[in-house]
Design brief:
By secondary structure, the protein is an alpha+beta fold. It is built from 9 helices and 7 strands; from the N terminus they run αααααβαββαββααββ. The chain has a 5-stranded mixed β-sheet with strand order 2-4-5-7-6, covered by helices on one side. The longest helix has 52 residues.
Length: 385
């Protein structure tokens, strides 16, 4: 059966079921009919000599037949009809149940093939390959799908390489521009106000572009960083909160943390992920509010929640906030700072560690970001954005 196509498998199984159903129906109905015939014969033998050479016809409605015999024959006919219909319905029901399970067994390779495809995500294209030991109907599809995965992986690799190369080339001239502007400001302290405003604007924008190129370069090099450290989250988060305390003090925001657990990964990348999440919560939270970080566990997963008291994220934008350069409110982007890559980098780091990041809850009272990471010793597939 292994080398047969799906079409032939279903055909042969259906034929076998139909044959079994017909044989069962024929046997059961025939057996039932013989039983009723024997019952009728035993009653008829009391009214005549069955050993006579000349056979006689038998009519249950004839006046020569007693009422008692007529009732017996009529009841036997009705019972035989009811029994036949019951047997037919029962055999049909049993045949349908068997066909359901048989077809499910025949389609098991299709479900296994679909499960392989579901595991293919942007973060694991290089390690994903659909098995080509499949049914003949899916062999060509499997080969084409593997070719598509290879091309997509090459495309993503080229995109990462381009981003890294572009960021690397931009970093040097931007650093040179920053240095020259700072040197000019030192050598010319008494410039006109208009010139000073222009220099301030240029320094701010150059610093913003430098930050953006550094983040792009960091994102392009993520997959080259080993992720085999055993990290205790509570001390790491406390370090993040201590580093961000000055920013929180500017808005009179209290920082709180509770819970602890272990995860495997890269300590610098995990620090950067938590730093970006908490910094984002502080920037978008209301003044005189609280940013709360909690660490819990659920099964083989570690759950990190970062809760702020901001204005919330509209439901239609909750998946898009992890896209590069996306901003919910572009008119207020300058007020909050940043370059629009913080959450995108968080998504990349979470995916690299086999975890996820999502907006668990958001309303006008605040937002809860949920980072899900596998416990040490468990393996999680990266998921698609």
């Amino acid at each position: 059966m292994k080398d047969l196509s799906l079409q032939w498998r279903i055909t042969l199984m259906t034929a076998a079921l139909v044959c079994a159903a017909c044989l069962s129906t024929n046997f059961l109905v025939g057996y039932s009919g013989m039983q009723y015939m024997d019952e009728i014969g035993s009653e008829v033998s009391a009214y005549g000599n069955v050993n006579e050479d000349i056979p006689k016809s038998f009519d249950p409605g004839s006046e020569d037949v007693g009422n008692e015999l007529t009732i017996v024959v009529s009841d036997a006919q009705k019972s035989f009809g009811v029994t036949s219909w019951c047997i037919t319905a029962l055999v049909t029901l049993i045949g349908g149940v068997l066909a359901y399970f048989a077809s499910g067994r025949a389609l098991r390779p299709l479900r296994a093939f679909a499960a392989q495809i579901e595991h293919v995500q942007p973060g694991n294209l290089a390690d994903s390959k659909i098995s080509e030991d499949v049914l003949p109907e899916f062999k060509r599809f499997s080969e084409s799908f593997n070719g598509m995965i290879h091309r997509l992986d090459a495309g993503f690799a080229a995109q990462r390489q381009f981003s890294g190369n572009a960021a690397h080339e931009l970093r040097t001239p931007l650093a040179l521009m920053q240095t020259q502007m700072e040197l000019f400001a030192v050598e010319h302290p008494d410039v006109p106000p208009a010139t000073n405003d222009l220099l301030t604007l240029l320094r701010d924008q150059t610093e913003r572009m430098s930050s953006m190129t550094s983040t792009l370069l960091e994102m392009s090099e993520l997959r080259a960083i080993p992720c085999n450290d055993e990290i205790e989250l509570a001390p790491l988060i406390e370090e993040v909160l201590a580093d961000l305390a000055p920013l929180a003090d500017q808005k009179d925001i209290a920082l709180a943390c509770r819970g602890n657990n272990l995860v495997n990964g890269s300590d610098p990348l995990m620090y950067r992920m938590m730093f970006n999440l908490v910094e984002n919560a502080i920037r978008y939270s209301r003044p005189a509010s609280t940013v709360d970080v909690t660490v819990d566990e659920e099964g083989d997963q570690v759950l990190v929640r970062i809760k702020d008291e901001g204005f919330g994220i509209p439901e239609q934008h909750r998946d898009s906030v992890f896209q590069p350069f996306f901003r919910v409110d572009k008119s207020r982007s300058r007020e909050y700072g940043g370059v629009g890559l913080g959450l995108s980098l968080v998504w990349e780091i979470a995916t690299l560690h086999g975890g996820t990041i999502e907006v668990e809850n958001s309303s006008s009272h605040g937002t809860v970001m949920l980072a899900t990471l596998p416990k040490p010793g468990t393996t999680e597939q990266p998921i698609e954005r």
